[in-house]
Every structure is written in structure tokens, then in C-alpha cells.
Design goal:
heterodimer, A: alpha+beta, Immunoglobulin-like, five-stranded mixed β-sheet, 39% helix, B: mainly alpha, Cytochrome C Oxidase, Chain A, two-stranded antiparallel sheet, 2 strands
Chain lengths: 275, 608
């Protein structure tokens, strides 16, 4: 009796906690509201199964508790029941999986008008590179990295000259402009994750990974590294600022291109040499 | 004439003609194929209890060693929880120590506790007894298996005392960071970890071959595969999985050791760190992840399948009812085992592998939900119309059902590739896998210990302490992990040493404190359990033979508790499955496996 009640209470408490919990996701700030919908659908389907199974269990514990005069039923199998339950479950699984795969297909299909930007991760911080007016990012190589060329850009690639280098953990994005983030790591695994955008992907040394999203809400959002990357993992953060077009252009104008940076460095070297 | 079966057939015929009542058709019991196994009879204390070849003693050795290291894993988790709940009060724990605790806790619990306990502990103790064998087929190799495991544990412990401490790479040991200086323990700790894992795999292979071959070759007469207790089916399938999966871990360990010590580049691409380019080039970090999870996902089922099997038997015995849908249960175990080899990359949806893999692995992963759900239905349907004794093993089995269903459905979130994108690497994942492969299997471990302790020692564990242990552990663990999912929804990433200055994450502070307090209480209760195990060994209430009135062979040995050689002079002959409880047509409440149909002529048992 007592046992059945406690089990039932635990299930009821779980439901209450779910609906009244102050801990819930942050409002979505990108086009990935679809992901939230898929989660909600999964919640309802699986939540119903969880509650049904557990309450049925609690009922059995109450209704069939030991009595000396009771004899348990002897029924090794019930093919019809097992068959029905199997297909019902299969149907539920399809109902969860199909919408999920549709959204995943969207997630990995980048729209053509997406602005390609590069996120460079290192222990433990973030840098960014935006294409210049040509809209194309220049080639890079780990072997080319040095103090004058922190991104390892290929000087001989004409596309690299106008690339804009952001040597700062803060990134600005223009609202409603789809972005394809190309992820690169200089050293170990990291993961570029902004909870409000709902999207994430590991960054790896040696290959370039990507995902895309459209920021749809103005504001400042925290960037978290979501792949354990060593002692400083928890401190590897930054911010994304989603701006209106004008604010974004102002910010962009203040950033420095690769060409300018090289010129500046050369000038500095010349000055040092003259002295 | 020594062949008992012939006599029985005659008796059956006699019963048939005289009473005219229903008699299940007697089945052909095959004649003895093999001569009796020659057993090595130990004489001295050392060969009897230390370098012992008796599977029962080896099982206990495995279980005690695994439990000892498991308690170290438990204490490490306290350190982590204190830091997460009360970062200011317990500032002695720096980030490096924190990450080392995370890593060692995970590795210890998954490999050295759960795998060793289920297969090495329960497997060794129960397989020969339950299939009606005198011992494992290779007792000497079995003994070496345990000592290899012990060496692996000692090497693991040694890593706490080397310069730089144990590795802090996370239990997944992902390269490149695992062997680069930005990670704690990248000097000696990681090497010892890889060596320890390799030793574990070698030791396990010796034991695993024993379990599989004993089950396939050493079953007593009449013990067909479809009459084996589900415990044996679970352990058998898990062992097959382990024998196929562990080699992937083994080669990954060897390759990473070579990358680390000899400068090869299996997993190491061009890397620029600490202001210079390293000598590595051309390797693939994702290759390691594939190898690791090709082992790592079956590993989940290596822990879960024995738990599935054992809990089926516990529910059936303590509800006095046959396992509902036995054949479906067996097939579900086998199908889950087979599918577990083609789902591994669902751990890598956001790893940067080709995104098209997502479609395939999400589909295979969600298909596993079907056989798994069938098992759950059959457990609760076994309770339905049973006669449920709320013994401690039964309580733990009920706790298992709740936590397993909870952890299983969150698996449907994470397995569905797009939902995994926001939730992966958050506390949702931590809550999910602790619930499904931490708490749920541990519920079964505890239930199984309360169930079989009388068989091992001849005494019962203390019931009052047992009830306290169950309620605090079950309710406490549920209170830890159920709310933890919601931290994941907020977006709190796992493996963060501290995180409270983020505006929306500060809302999780109170929850984190609550979880820490609950974790301390649940952890403390395990010490009460330990106390119960040690004191009941010599002070516990004496148990009569077969106290739970079970049918499987381990309870029906001539000596109780069973002695060396298990079955006295003659091995038992098996006539039925182990679930003939409450059979209609007879006043016998249960019919053990070795009872011939002729002995219960009126029983309307279905033929198995």
C-alpha cells in the first residue's frame, strides 16, 4: 500500500516539477524554433509513456500485493498483446523520428545567401574572421601561423587580403542575415555553442566543420565552449552581439583587414629597424 | 542403469495411464555427451581463497575489488559535487583536481565497477551454478583473469601518485587534448590510464571467453538455451558484446600510447599550441572517437543487459509469477545486443563527422527503443496479476523500472539527432546517462545482492538497514538526476568547473546546491550498505535453503551455500524453464527446474 503510494507520488511530483519548474530553456534567438518544437513533441509522447508505465506499475504493486490466499496468474505469453504493443511503440518511434530528421535536413543544408564567417578556437578563447567585400575567406594553414599572421592566412591567396580579422572574443552579427559559421581549431577540440541559438558543433584541428543559423532577435548572447578542452574549458567564453544593420556596419568599419594589419606591422618593423 | 531419464519416462507413462489427468509430454533429455569435468581440488589456504580457481570465489574477489574501487569513485563524485554546489566554501579544489575527479569517477564507475561487477562478479558466481556446471570450463584462465583485473586496478590507483596526477581528459579521453599539456595529468597519468585499460581488456578477454564457452558448452542435460534463466541470457549476450567491443578500445589505447610516447600521428593533426607548431601531422581526432564509441556504446549494453536479465528473474521470483513473454525477452536481449553495434556515432552527432551520418544513426538508435520498450512492458506485465512480495530485491526492481524508463525516454531525446544538437554536452546528457546506466543498473546490483547474499553466505542481510538503504538511494538518486535534466535545458554545459557569472545560469545555483546535498546523503547511505554486508556476514539472520522459493538451479545444490564443484555427486537434469510459479493444477506453488514432469503429474505447465 505504502510502497505503491510512494511510487505514484514520485510520478506526480515529477509532473508537477515539470510544469512548475523555474528552470527552462532561454527564449530562442535564432531560426531554430523548430528544434524546440521537436523537443516539445518528444516531451509529450515520451512523458505520456513514462507516466503510464510507472502508474501502471504502482497500480500492480497495490492491486497484486502479497496475500497468502492469492495465486498468481500463469500466463507465459500473450502473442496478440505483445504484437500490439510492439507496433504501437514502433509507431510512436516513427512519429518522433520523422519530424526530427526533417529538421536535421534543414540544419545541414546551408542557404545560398548565408554569410560565411570563420570561428577560430584555441586554448582558451575565440577569434573570428569575416570575408571582406569579395565575400570569400582566404586560405589558411597552421604552418603559416606566427606573430605577424595569427590566423595563418596564405598571403599569396588574393581572397585573403580583404579578410577582416577579429582578435577578440566578441562577435557581432547582423539581425536576420543567415550565417554559416566555419569552425576551425588551432590546437584541440572545442565547441562553438550559444544556448539561445540552439546550435552547436565541435571545432577540430585539421578539418573545418560548420553549421548555420539566422539570428532573429537583437541582444547580447554568451558563447560557451561545449566540448571539454582542458583546464581552462570553463573559462572559454565570449559574446555574440546581434545588431541592426546600422550598428553592425559601424562595428564592422572599426575592424581591421589582413592587408591593413600586415601594413601596420610592416610599418612598425620599419620604425624599429630605423631606430 | 545410471541414466535417470529413462526411469522418469517410465514413471511419466505410469502416471499418465493411472490418473488420466493432464500431463505435459515428457521431453527427450539428451544423454551425457561429455565425461565429468576433472576439477582441481585446492588444499591450502592460498589455493582455496587467494589464488583460487573456483568461479564462486573468483566472483567474490571480483565483486569486492570492484566495490572497493567503486567507493573511491563515489568519494571523487563528492569532491565534484561540493565544488559545483558550494564553489566558494570548498575552494581547495582547483580546476585541475576537479577535472581529474570527473575523469577518474567516470572511468572507475563504468569500467572498473559496473563492468567488472556484473560480468566478473555476478557472471562468475552465477553462470556455473545457473547452467548446472561444476565450474567454468577454464578455471585456471579464470583465476588469471581476476589477477589481471587487480593489476589493472592497481595501475589505475598508481596514477593518483605520479607527478602531474591522474589524467583529467574526461572519461572519453579524446585526443588531441588527452596527451597535450593543457590537460591535467598529460604527463604520466594518461599513460597509466591507457596501460590500465589495456590490462583490463586482456584480463576481461580471459574471463569473457570462459563465460561464453561455459554457457555454450557446459550446460547440464536438459538445459536448452530457451530454458536458461534470463540472468544468464543477459550476461551471455553482454559478454559477447564485450568480446567484440573491447578490442576497439584496446587498439585505440595502443594507438594513443604510441602518439604520446613515440610521436606517431594516428589521432594527431597539425597543431599549433603554446606559440609553436607541434611535430604531429595528418592524424584524425575523429578516428579515435569512432574507435572509442564503437566500444563505448556496446559498453552501455554490457552494463545494461546483465541488469535486464537479473531484474527479470528478481521480479518473477518475488512476484511469484512467470516472466511474461520469455521468448520475446530473449530475442529482445539478442536484438538490442546486435543493434548496439550500429548506433555508436549517436555520441558524435556534433563531433564534426559527416553530417549525413546523422540520418542513419538517428534511425538505428530509435529502432533500439522498440525491443527495449518491449522489455519494459514485459516487466510490468509480469507484475500484473502476480502475488507481489515487497521484499528488498523487489523494491530495488521497482526502483529500477522507474529509473530505467526515465533514463530510457531521455535517450529518445538525445538519439534523435536534431534534439541532440542543443542538448549534447549539457547537464541533460549527464542526467540521462547517470539515470540509465548508473542508477538503474545499480538498483539491480543492490537488488541482486540482497537476493543472492543468502546463497553466498547462508545469512540474510539486515532488513531494516536494507529498507533504509533502498528508500534513501532510490528517492535520493531520483531527486538528484530528475531535476538535473532541467539544468541541461537552460543550456548549462557539462564539465564546467564553475559557471555562475552567466546571467541565466545563476538561476541554477539553488538547484545545484540541492543536488549536492542529496548526493552527499545518497553517498553516505552506501556506507550503511557496506556496513550491512560486512556485519551480516557473521551476524546476519540464518537463511534456510532457498529462502525466496526460486526455481533456478543455484538454489538447489546439495550443500547450502554451494561448495566447490557445486552439485555434489550427480549433476542435475533440467526439465523446464525456471519460471514455473503458481502453475495451475497443482498445489505446489513453485516447480524447480530439475523437477521432472512425472513428479508433478497434475501440473498444467506449458512446455518450455
Amino acid at each position: 500500500m505504502f510502497v505503491a503510494i510512494i511510487f505514484a507520488l514520485i510520478i506526480v511530483a515529477s509532473i508537477i516539477f515539470h510544469f512548475w519548474s523555474p528552470w527552462w530553456w532561454t527564449p530562442v534567438a535564432s531560426n531554430w524554433g523548430n528544434i524546440d518544437d521537436t523537443i516539445i513533441l518528444t516531451f509529450w509522447v515520451t512523458g505520456a509513456v513514462f507516466v503510464a508505465v510507472c502508474l501502471f506499475m504502482a497500480y500492480c504493486v497495490w492491486a497484486y500485493r502479497y496475500r497468502p490466499d492469492r495465486k498468481a496468474e500463469y500466463k507465459p505469453e500473450d502473442k496478440k498483446l505483445e504484437f500490439r504493443l510492439t507496433w504501437l511503440t514502433a509507431l510512436g518511434v516513427v512519429a518522433l523520428l520523422a519530424p526530427g530528421l526533417v529538421v536535421w535536413n534543414k540544419y545541414i543544408t546551408v542557404p545560398e545567401n548565408a554569410l560565411k564567417i570563420e570561428v577560430v578556437a584555441y586554448q582558451w578563447g575565440w577569434n573570428y574572421r569575416l570575408p571582406g567585400d569579395d565575400g570569400v575567406l582566404g586560405k589558411t594553414s597552421v604552418g603559416l601561423i606566427n606573430d605577424d599572421n595569427p590566423f595563418g592566412l596564405d598571403i599569396n591567396d588574393p581572397n585573403s587580403k580583404d579578410d577582416i580579422l577579429v582578435m577578440d572574443a566578441d562577435l557581432h552579427l547582423e539581425i536576420n542575415q543567415p550565417v554559416k559559421v566555419e569552425l576551425r581549431s588551432l590546437d584541440v577540440l572545442h565547441n562553438f555553442y550559444v544556448p539561445q541559438f540552439r546550435a552547436k558543433m565541435d571545432t577540430l584541428p585539421g578539418i573545418i566543420t560548420y553549421y548555420w543559423f539566422t539570428p532573429e532577435k537583437k541582444g547580447e548572447y554568451e558563447i560557451l565552449c561545449a566540448e571539454y578542452c582542458g583546464t581552462g574549458h570553463y573559462a572559454m567564453r565570449g559574446f555574440v552581439q546581434v545588431d541592426e544593420k546600422k550598428d553592425y556596419s559601424d562595428w564592422l568599419a572599426k575592424q581591421i583587414s589582413f592587408e591593413k594589419m600586415l601594413a601596420k606591422k610592416e610599418l612598425k618593423n620599419l620604425l624599429i629597424a630605423e631606430k | 542403469m545410471t541414466d535417470e531419464y529413462t526411469d522418469n519416462k517410465l514413471e511419466t507413462k505410469a502416471a499418465d495411464s493411472s490418473s488420466g489427468s493432464y500431463t505435459p509430454p515428457a521431453e527427450a533429455i539428451p544423454a551425457k555427451e561429455n565425461p565429468e569435468q576433472e576439477l582441481y581440488h585446492a588444499k591450502s589456504f592460498w589455493t582455496k581463497w587467494v589464488f583460487c580457481q573456483d568461479a564462486k570465489v573468483i566472483g567474490i574477489q571480483y565483486a569486492l575489488t570492484a566495490t572497493a574501487i567503486g567507493f573511491i569513485g563515489l568519494i571523487l563524485s563528492w569532491g565534484m559535487r561540493l565544488q559545483l554546489g558550494f564553489p566558494e566554501t570548498f575552494s581547495f579544489l582547483g580546476p585541475a583536481t576537479y577535472y581529474q575527479s570527473v575523469t577518474m569517477h567516470g572511468m572507475i564507475m563504468v569500467i572498473y565497477l559496473l563492468t567488472a561487477l556484473f560480468l566478473g562478479g555476478f557472471g562468475n558466481y552465477l553462470i556455473p551454478l545457473m547452467v548446472g556446471a561444476r565450474d567454468m570450463v577454464f578455471p585456471y584462465v579464470n583465476m588469471v583473469s581476476y589477477w589481471m583485473f587487480l593489476v589493472a586496478v592497481l595501475v589505475l590507483l598508481a596514477s593518483f601518485f605520479v607527478p602531474g596526477g591522474p589524467t583529467g581528459a574526461g572519461w572519453t579521453l579524446y585526443p588531441p587534448q588527452a596527451i597535450l599539456p593543457g590537460t591535467p595529468g598529460s604527463e604520466m597519468g594518461i599513460v597509466l590510464m591507457l596501460v590500465s585499460l589495456s590490462l583490463f581488456v586482456i584480463g576481461f578477454t580471459m574471463g569473457g571467453l570462459n563465460y561464453v564457452i561455459t554457457i555454450l558448452q557446459s550446460r547440464t542435460r536438459g538445459m536448452t538455451l530457451m530454458r536458461m534463466p534470463l540472468t544468464i541470457w543477459g550476461i551471455f549476450t553482454a559478454t559477447v558484446l564485450a568480446l567484440l567491443a573491447f578490442p576497439a578500445l584496446f587498439v585505440a589505447c595502443i594507438m594513443m600510447t604510441l602518439d604520446n610516447l613515440l610521436g606517431t600521428s594516428f589521432f594527431m593533426p597539425e597543431i599549433f599550441t603554446m606559440g609553436e607548431k607541434l611535430d604531429y601531422a595528418g592524424g584524425s581526432p575523429i578516428l579515435f572517437q569512432h574507435l572509442f564509441w564503437f566500444f563505448g556504446h556496446p559498453e552501455v549494453y554490457i552494463v545494461a543487459l546483465p541488469a535486464f536479465g537479473i531484474v527479470s528473474d528478481l521480479i518473477s521470483v518475488h512476484a511469484r509469477k512467470n516472466v511474461f513473454g520469455y521468448r520475446m525477452m530473449v530475442w529482445a536481449i539478442v536484438i538490442i545486443g546486435a543493434l548496439s553495434f550500429i548506433v555508436w556515432a549517436h555520441h558524435m552527432y556534433v563531433s564534426g563527422m559527416n553530417p549525413w551520418f546523422g540520418f542513419f544513426f538517428a534511425t538505428t538508435t530509435l529502432i533500439i527503443a522498440v525491443p527495449t520498450a518491449i522489455k519494459v512492458y514485459n516487466w510490468v506485465l509480469t507484475l500484473w496479476r502476480g502475488n507481489i512480495h515487497l521484499t528488498i530485491p523487489m523494491l530495488f526492481s521497482l526502483g529500477f523500472i522507474v529509473t530505467f524508463v526515465n533514463g530510457g525516454i531521455t535517450g529518445l531525446f538525445l538519439g534523435n539527432v536534431i534534439i541532440d544538437v542543443p542538448l549534447s554536452d549539457t547537464y541533460f546528457v549527464v542526467a540521462h546517462f547517470h539515470m540509465v546506466m548508473g542508477i538503474a543498473p545499480l538498483m539491480v546490483v543492490f537488488g541482486a545482492i540482497y537476493h543472492w547474499y543468502p546463497l553466498i553466505t547462508g545469512r540474510h542481510l539486515n532488513q531494516t538497514l536494507g529498507k533504509i538503504h533502498f528508500w534513501v538511494t532510490f528517492v535520493g538518486a531520483y531527486a538528484i538526476y530528475f531535476p538535473m535534466h532541467y539544468l541541461g535545458f537552460i543550456g548549462v554545459p557539462r564539465r564546467y568547473f564553475e559557471m555562475y557569472d552567466s546571467p541565466y545560469m545563476t538561476s541554477g545555483v539553488g538547484l545545484n546546491q540541492f543536488i549536492t546535498v542529496a548526493a552527499l546523503i545518497v553517498g553516505f547511505t552506501q556506507f550503511i550498505f557496506l556496513y550491512n554486508i560486512f556485519t551480516s556476514w557473521y551476524k546476519g539472520e540464518k537463511s534456510e535453503k532457498n529462502p525466496w522459493k526460486a526455481n533456478s538451479l543455484e538454489w538447489h545444490t546439495p550443500d547450502y551455500p554451494p561448495t566447490h564443484g557445486n552439485f555434489g555427486k550427480e549433476l542435475p537434469v533440467v526439465y523446464r524453464w525456471p519460471y514455473d510459479f503458481s502453475v495451475p493444477g497443482t498445489d505446489k506453488e513453485y516447480i524447480p527446474q530439475h523437477v521432472a514432469p512425472s513428479e508433478v503429474p497434475t501440473a498444467k505447465a506449458e512446455q518450455t
